[in-house]
Amino acid sequence: MPLALLALAVSAFGIGTTEFVMMGLLPNVADDLGTSVPTAGYLVSAYAIGVVLGAPLLTGLGSRVPRKKMLLLLMALFTVGNLASALAPDFGWLVAGRFLAGLPHGAFFGVGAVVAARLVSEGRQARAVATMFLGLTVANIVGVPAATLLGQHLGWRATFLVVAAIGLAAMAALARLVPRIPVEAHQDVRRELRALGNRQVLLGLLTAVFGFAGVFAVYSYLSAMTTKAMGFGESSVTLVLALFGIGMTLGALAAGPLTDRALRPTLYGSLGALAVVLVAFPFTVHVQWAALAMVVLLGAVGFMTTTPLQMLVMNKAKDAPTLASASNHSAFNLANAGGAWLGGVAIAAGWGWTSPAFVGAVLAVAGLAIAATAGYLDRNGGKPRSRVVAANSARPAPSPARPAFEDGTVAPGGPATHVEPSPPGAPSSPSGV
Q1: Quick check: 326 and 210 in contact, CB under 8 A?
Q2: Sign of the CA dihedral 225, 230, 236, 238?
Q3: DSSP assignment of 200-237, as one string?
Q4: Please, what is the angle between helix 189-196 and helix 42-61, to 10°?
Q5: So what's the pLDDT on residue 1?
Q6: Can you give the pLDDT at residue 81?
């Protein structure tokens, strides 16, 4: 794998750390700024809103900017946002800093996924995208626990100063390791918007909203489940969250080669496995070793959905994949907010601390149903089966096609097979799409 993927992974590590560390620092921030923990929770929402709005907005504004330069600009904005958070004089300014730090999140992953796919040969593109995502998963194992401990001992401002330093290091790595990728002649915002309107792209984004919401319906309340349902002490929360991060990493490692081999089967299988794990979760949570194993499994099958969804929207957007790729991360953050809200509704209704798992299972099944419908429509060109059969039976049988030789001549007896070249910049579709 190219070293440029390491630069993308380091950037993803910084983004993942700042995204999730706030959940562990809410009590510290609330005490320091004289507000309540529920009010401090708006800091999580501010970041998520920044991601949702920033992904399409910044990607559209930067549609004519060379991709390496775009990555550097986005990481610079990320660094400024974290520095502003560290220096915020009051709660309102901290909300603004979190929103600013979230703005480049989706656009960076969207552009970064397109760049990662272009750095490798055909058949290894999903593995390249998954390698970039590894930085995000490792952040949950190392970055978030370490940053939380740092914030608890030296103050939450120190955490954001360190994340800003990671942003600077990521910028240096991007500048040194990522090759210059020129703007394609056809690259413009109108073409990207048309690609975003593709029905398969929209169905892929909808799959992400519902399917990934199943993960966050549980993850958002995993700390509370650790102490109130699993029977562990508060000191074990960091361990449980790290186990979830290990599962995410294992899922990312498996998703890359599986997606390169068969995209849609990997997506269907991961969503189906996610639904099964979520249904089983409440029945195993009271046996501590089984609960820990289920946490790892939940992280693994949940994160296995991200790479096939990312590749699906990029492939279906054809030669204008950047906006669709970035919008996929808006979809993931909508899933974050929606899953957390629905899981909270279940708990508030008195259904128990493990009830979000059943809510998540329903969401995962809904995501699987959307993905399967999209696959059916893709195979049949959007037509009912009866019309497809009738149209196929009315066509005359094609003459056997024969390959052309390198000099352009063909073997006698019929037309040569001709394959249109892929448009410049378009990622190749793996088998199974």
Answers
A1: no
A2: negative
A3: HHHHHHHHHHHHHHHHHHHHTTHHHHHHHTS---GGGH
A4: 120
A5: 66
A6: 96
Dihedral of the alpha carbons of 332, 337, 341, 344, in degrees to the nearest 10: 90
Separation in Å, CA 389 to CA 189, 200, 208: 38, 22, 31
Tokens encoding 120: 């490798």
| DSSP secondary structure letter of residue 295 | H
Phi then psi for 122, rounded to 5 degrees?
A: -60, 140
Q: Please report where in the chains the tokens 């370490």 appear, as a residue.
A: 146
- pLDDT at residue 187 in the model: 65
Token output for 285: 């949570």
DSSP-derived 3-state class of residue 416 = strand
Residues 216, 93, 111, 268: what is their CA dihedral angle, to the nearest 10 degrees?
A: 10
Q: Which of 312, 57, 91, 291 is nearest to 192 (CA)?
A: 57
Give the DSSP per-residue string, 54-115.
HHHHHHHHTTTS-HHHHHHHHHHHHHHHHHHHHT-SSHHHHHHHHHHHHHHHHHHHHHHHHH
75 touches 11 (CB < 8 A): yes
Q: Which two tokens stand for residue 328?
A: 């996929």
Of the candidates 255, 269, 299, the one whose C-alpha atom is nearest the C-alpha of residue 281 is 299
Give the span between the Cα atoms of 196 and 189, in whole angstroms: 10
pLDDT at 409: 41
CB 284 within 8 A of CB 294: yes
Q: What is the DSSP string of 300-343?
A: HHHHTTHHHHHHHHHHHTTT--HHHHHHHHHHHHHHHHHHHHHH
For 164-204, what is each residue's pLDDT tens digit? 999 999 999 999 999 987 766 556 778 888 888 899 999 99
Residue 168's Cβ-count burial label (10 Å; 0-12, 13-18, 19+) is middle
Question: Among candidates 274, 337, 280, 277, which has minimal Cα distance to 306?
Answer: 274
With a cut of 50, which residues of the chain have pLDDT below it? 386-391, 394, 399, 401-432
